[in-house]
Design a protein that fits this description.
With about 450 residues, this protein is mainly alpha-helical. It folds into 3 domains: about 1-300, ABC transporter involved in vitamin B12 uptake, BtuC (Orthogonal Bundle), CATH 1.10.3470; about 305-375, Winged helix-like DNA-binding domain superfamily/Winged helix DNA-binding domain (Arc Repressor Mutant, subunit A); about 380-430, Diphtheria Toxin Repressor, domain 2 (Orthogonal Bundle), CATH 1.10.60.10. Helices cover about 75% and strands about 0% of the residues. It has helices at about 1-15, 20-40, 45-55, 55-65, 75-100, 105-130, 135-145, 150-170, 175-180, 185-190, 195-235, 240-270, 280-300, 305-330, 340, 350-360, 375-400, 410-415, 420-430, and strands spanning about 335, 365-370, 370-375. A 3-stranded antiparallel beta sheet has the order 1-3-2. Helix 3 runs parallel beside helix 6, helix 4 (about 55-65) packs antiparallel against helix 7 and helix 5 (about 75-100) runs antiparallel to helix 6 (about 105-130). The longest helix has about 40 residues, at about 195-235. The radius of gyration is 32 Å and the shape is elongated.
Length: about 450
């Protein structure tokens, strides 16, 4: 544990590793916060379009900074960021113009800006490959990302941009919440919706500009959306989504750097004659995507696996209650052979046998003479309650809702498994404790249960 702790701290103190690690974490943090807004507004493709729209700005920014005799890293980074910001902002304006003025559909406008701006960037970069070969290599860094070459200057720049993003989210939290959830209601309150929309999209541009240095133009949209997807699976509250997305993004930024270096060194030691390296940017995206997949599968409320498990448990509960109901209808002390018991039940014979064994373990059913079964006193109690709920619901549908008696059975078959004791009491009170169902069958008495 001590070695691992020292190794982690080393990423924040080592002069070579400090800038890539902290810079990537700041980038991911800002992108994660803004990604929550983009995700909730169902505008996830905006990040993809703006990241590609930023590429010609990167090329022009490098050219502008290259006009200096010997541009410092700060001047070069500042020129690139300003160029990328201007180009991405122009792409955003073009998207808005096409949607509002030219009545072009959103997806078409996004695809147009993505392809057109990126094509312009590639054209400029191709020309620079021969006229400014040293600057051309710097442009390629922003195409695919290269976090390993960050310096402390990048920490300062990304820190300021991340701070601006956080302050904007904090001060405009209520407005963002209102507009994201209900734009018409926000307008009725007198909120300046268009101004806030412009500010939000400016923040999206900032997040894109922050991120392309680490993960590149190609992968930037993933860092906007992946933390938001993880957060949405874990909560429905906006402020919690911001917190979870920010923490998830910070973790992705660190682990991307950590795994990139550690796995590269491990593979290099194992295969010394091979040049093996895992780039930091794609590793950051892979970590963020893995967190998203884990949230999609294992989130407590929305996770696919746990939802499937709850569905299986509910189906098992329904089958067990149907078996108790079938035994109760056969008579209080009736002994029912296995084939008669499962004849009208859904599921394979093996599955139904496992459900019967479960009922036996719970003490609700006991085996008699091999493959015959009867209810225990506790089983009769539970079977009678299921019958009572079924017939109460039939009375409710027929007498209170006016549904024909011939149509109430199938609805009652479903509702009998989910009616709570509270609803049972309310139904009993509402229907004045009925004695018979619409088919003139007796309803088991509550005091008998």
């Amino acid at each position: 544990m001590i070695v691992i702790g020292q190794s982690v701290i080393h990423y924040f103190t080592d002069p070579v590793l400090r800038a890539p690690t902290i810079g990537s974490m700041l980038m991911c943090f800002a992108a994660g916060l803004i990604g929550v807004i983009v995700f909730l507004r169902k505008e996830s493709l905006v990040g993809e379009s703006l990241s590609h729209a930023a590429y010609p700005g990167v090329a022009l920014g490098v050219l502008a900074a290259g006009t200096w005799a010997e541009p410092t890293p700060f001047i070069l980074s500042l020129g690139i960021l300003l160029g990328a910001f201007s180009s991405a902002l122009l792409g955003l304006i073009v998207i808005a113009f096409m949607e509002r003025r030219l009545k072009v559909k959103s997806d078409a406008a996004l695809c147009f800006v993505l392809s057109a701006f990126f094509a312009v960037g590639i054209t400029i970069a191709s020309r620079m490959q021969f006229s400014h070969s040293s600057l051309y290599r710097k442009i390629q860094v922003y195409l695919y990302g290269q976090a390993a070459t960050m310096t402390d200057v990048h920490i300062l720049i990304y820190g300021l941009l991340s701070l601006a993003t956080v302050l904007a989210v904090l001060f405009l939290y209520k407005e963002i919440l209102t507009i994201t959830m209900d734009r018409d209601y926000a307008k009725s309150l007198g909120l300046r919706v268009r101004w806030i929309d412009f500010l939000v999209f400016t923040l999206v541009v900032l997040a894109v500009v922050i991120g392309i240095r680490s993960v590149g133009v190609v992968l930037m949209s993933a860092m906007l959306i992946a933390p938001a997807v993880s957060a949405r699976q874990l909560t429905s509250k906006l402020y919690q989504m911001f917190i979870i997305a920010g923490l998830s993004a910070l973790f992705s930024g660190f682990m991307g750097n950590y795994l990139s270096l550690e796995i590269t060194e491990l593979l290099s030691a194992r295969y010394p004659h091979e040049r093996i390296g895992l780039p930091t940017g794609p590793m950051i995206v892979m970590v963020a995507s893995t967190l998203s997949l884990m949230a999609l599968f294992f989130a407590p409320e929305r996770g696919l696996v746990l939802r499937w498990w709850r569905m299986v448990m509910f189906r098992n509960k329904c089958v067990r209650e149907n078996l108790l109901k079938a035994l109760w209808r056969s008579g209080e002390a009736a002994v029912v052979p296995l084939n008669d018991l499962i004849r009208h039940q859904s599921g394979s014979k093996l599955y139904l046998k496992s459900m019967i064994r479960n009922l036996i373990r719970n003490g609700w059913v006991e085996r008699v003479d091999g493959d015959a079964f009867c209810l225990t006193p506790d089983g009769r109690h539970r079977g009678a309650r299921i019958i009572r709920l079924h017939r109460l619901w039939e009375v409710y549908l027929a007498d209170y809702m006016g549904v024909g008696a011939e149509k109430v059975h199938y609805s009652a078959e479903e509702m009998e498994h989910i009616l709570t004791p509270e609803l049972e009491r309310e139904l009993t009170k509402l229907l004045r404790d009925p004695k018979q169902d619409p088919h003139e069958q007796p309803i088991p008495r509550d005091d008998a249960l």
